[in-house]
Design a protein that fits this description.
The complex is a heterodimer of chains A (411) and B (303). Helices cover 73% and strands 1% of the residues of chain A. Chain A is mainly alpha-helical. In chain B, 41% of the residues are buried. The chains are: A mainly alpha (411), B mainly alpha (303).
């Protein structure tokens, strides 16, 4: 038994490491959203600021880094994503429901085939669903001769809704199938015997019974649509959704504005998950109250150790929230005290960086001159792979005529 | 058919038939078939479609294997290598994920108390719903040239200059592992959860060692979950696009990126379709292989 305990402790450590791996990157990314530096980082900490949530900044090298509130691309992408999400929910939930209903009625000979076809979209790579939708609709559009079909076939939002519905319907389908398995068919029969029509049975008995599944499949369909990239990037054509905007931003050069966006999304996800969990727990408790006590006792016995129960009876979340608030206030005070928050700090850092940058430029230019003299063309001078070796070309600064170092020294 | 209408009533029957027909035929089957058809067509402008030049051809598949006719190489080493790299890496990542997740799934399913298990599962769900791109971005912050890991290592004095994780593909592999790890945990957890704890205790009482218990009892019981998790992770890894876009180095390609290039940059849709068909074939073969190896039905893989 003792070795068993040691093993459990080892397992516990492993779990801890695992969760650190899972959450660590997200936590660090969230922290970088508050660093005023242009490059999202933690360790060369400049100033604590909310600028990436608000206006962003013009970087010292002239590049405009928009903050969250001023980035119109993100806003447009967000609106497109919301539209698509709504469309996908409206299409995929009814489809999933009908497929699940038909599965219960279809002849057992065809059941496996029907089920296999229904779950196929999940097994297809997302890119392929996007591609196949686009190529098909391109053909339809070119045959449509300028009519409605052509307009639809060239509409990225419409195509994305169709492509996403293809596989998100399967998620809904699976949720509904799980719920339908516990459906008591005698209820339907009783209603029919009492003279209800089939349509009435559907709306008065089946739909109310399926309501929790409908709600959760709506949430899951929306989230799946919202965060999808692989399919969307093909089917969106010339439009932009939130994910494609993020992708193009990340590819062009990474800015802490993305970190702040991520933090917002993390917080929203957290809230949704907690609300969902609370609702679910409430329902579980209701079910448990209805269910027989014996079963309840039995499950308790096999799954719960008594010591844990007393430990968990303290309302821990409240203390946790309090602690977080206190830590936040305290650390914010510290930040203000040490003058690493606010515009003064940012201005000071800016100045320092600008002079650094001018020096670096001079150095680079010198290096470039030297490099071109010795005719080394292999890109050895590029120090930072991050920027795709733009400094690797020794003629870059010469042709450019040098940066306007005069302007940099102005302030 | 009559029975179907009688059972559901006319209104509901119409709704069921229309929505399912729309989904199965219009969204699933026809697009795939059309893509398959397109992959055998030459790359000609839309206006010429249906004309005399629009004949079936294997040119795109030939290009995948042997390269363009102008190149002197015998095989299309670049593309085939990207393809094999993608598949092998995906298999490797699947195996690593399996080893990583098995202890976690076992812990949550059998060792942890009900409340801890619930808490762990909920906290597993949270990162799962955060955009794959953003998760990759988080890793990119860690692995960048002047990123977190390099800075910490330099400060600790382990290394002098930053390691270029992105060029070494460490970042890409970690990102792929990170992105789909949860899709391995959930099927495993579901499978192990149904195992009767008495079986474990019986094995222990009979003097079976820990490893032996797992090999002989837990793993055979969880084989459907293992098959399901492996399939999902392999599919998503091989078909990943977001993570490679963010984390791959400029000279590493993922197969989906090749497809993307043929589509969006080189504007050769039939060739992109042909490459997609190749990827799809691999996926289907992998699913069938999994079903064969683990002797499970397709319904058990997707749940």
């Amino acid at each position: 038994m003792k070795s068993q305990q040691a093993l459990n402790i080892l397992l516990g450590i492993y779990i801890f490491i695992f969760f650190t791996y899972l959450f660590g990157p997200l936590v660090i990314m969230s922290i970088t959203a508050f660093n005023s530096a242009e490059f999202p980082s933690v360790t060369p900490w400049e100033c604590f600021s909310f600028r990436w949530f608000n206006e962003g900044k013009i970087a010292y090298d002239g590049q405009h880094l928009a903050g969250l509130a001023t980035d119109w691309r993100l806003h447009e992408g967000l609106i497109t994503s919301l539209k698509i999400g709504l469309g996908v929910v409206l299409l995929s939930v009814p489809i999933g429901l009908s497929a699940a209903l038909v599965l219960t009625q279809v002849h057992s000979r065809f059941r496996t085939a029907f089920y296999s076809v229904s779950i196929m979209p999940v097994l297809f790579p997302g890119v392929i669903i996007g591609i196949s939708t686009v190529v098909l609709w391109d053909r339809i559009a070119s045959m449509g001769g300028g009519g409605l079909a052509t307009q639809l076939g060239r509409n990225g939002i419409f195509l994305t809704i169709l492509a996403q519905t293809c596989f998100i319907s399967t998620y809904c389908f699976l949720i509904f199938v799980a719920r339908l398995q516990r459906f008591d068919q005698t209820q339907e029969e009783a209603a029919l015997d009492l003279g209800a029509s089939q349509t009435q049975v559907f709306f008065k008995i089946l739909i109310p019974y399926m309501m929790p599944a409908i709600a959760s499949s709506c949430v899951i369909a929306f989230l799946a649509s919202f965060e999808n990239y692989n399919t969307t990037v093909f089917s969106i054509l010339s439009d932009q959704t939130l994910t494609t905007v993020i992708a193009s931003k990340v590819r062009l050069g990474i800015s802490p504005a993305i970190s702040s966006l991520a933090l917002v999304i993390i917080l929203i996800t957290l809230t949704v998950t907690i609300v969902y969990e609370v609702l679910r727990r409430r329902e579980d408790e209701k079910n448990r109250a209805i269910g027989s006590d014996a079963l309840y006792a039995q499950t308790l016995d096999s799954r719960l150790k008594k010591i844990d129960k007393s430990e968990f009876s303290i309302p821990k979340p409240i203390f946790g929230v309090l602690l977080v608030i206190i830590v936040c206030i305290f650390s914010f005070n510290k930040l203000v005290e040490n003058e690493i928050y606010g515009s003064a700090c940012i201005a000071a850092k800016e100045k320092e960086k600008k002079s650094n940058f001018a020096e670096q430029l001079k150095l680079l230019q010198k290096n470039a001159d030297k490099a071109s003299q010795t005719s080394v063309q292999n890109g050895e001078t590029g120090q930072k792979k991050e920027f795709g070796d733009i400094f690797g070309d020794p003629d870059l600064f010469k042709n450019f005529g040098g940066f306007d170092t005069k302007k940099k020294e102005d302030p | 058919m009559n029975y179907f209408f009688n059972k559901n009533g006319p209104l509901i029957s119409t709704y069921l038939i229309i929505s399912i027909g729309f989904w199965l035929i219009f969204l699933i089957i026809i697009p795939q078939l059309y893509m398959f058809d397109l992959s055998f067509r030459p790359n000609i402008p839309t206006l010429l479609r249906g004309g005399p030049d629009d004949v079936y051809t294997l040119v795109h598949y030939k290009h995948f294997l042997f390269g363009s006719e102008t190149s002197g190489e015998r095989y299309n080493y670049v593309d085939v290598r990207v393809f094999l790299d993608t598949i092998l890496t995906a298999i490797l990542i699947t195996l690593i994920n399996l080893c990583f997740c098995y202890p976690i799934a076992f812990y949550i399913a059998k060792v942890a108390s009900a409340k801890t298990a619930r808490l762990l599962i909920v906290s597993l769900i949270i990162p799962f719903w955060i955009n794959e791109l953003l998760r990759s971005f988080a890793l990119r912050i860690l692995f960048a040239g002047e990123g977190f890991i390099n800075n910490v290592l330099i400060k600790m004095g382990v290394i002098d200059t930053g390691i270029n994780f992105i060029a070494m593909d460490v970042a890409l592999y970690t990102g792929l592992n990170y992105a789909y790890i949860l899709l391995m945990i959930f099927p495993l957890y579901n499978a192990i959860e149904t195992l009767d704890k008495n079986q474990l205790e019986a094995a222990e009482d009979l003097g079976s060692s820990m490893i032996r218990t797992h090999l002989r009892i837990v793993i055979p019981h969880a084989k459907a979950g293992i098959a399901s998790g492996c399939t999902m992770v392999f599919m998503l890894t091989a078909g990943a696009l977001a993570t490679p876009v963010v984390l791959s180095s400029p000279n590493t390609f993922w197969f989906t990126q090749l497809i993307y290039q043929w589509f969006n940059m080189n504007d050769n849709w039939p060739r992109g379709a042909a490459y997609s068909v190749v990827l799809l074939t691999v996926s289907v073969v992998f699913v069938l292989l999994m079903m064969k190896i683990f002797k499970v039905k397709i319904g058990e893989i997707v749940r």
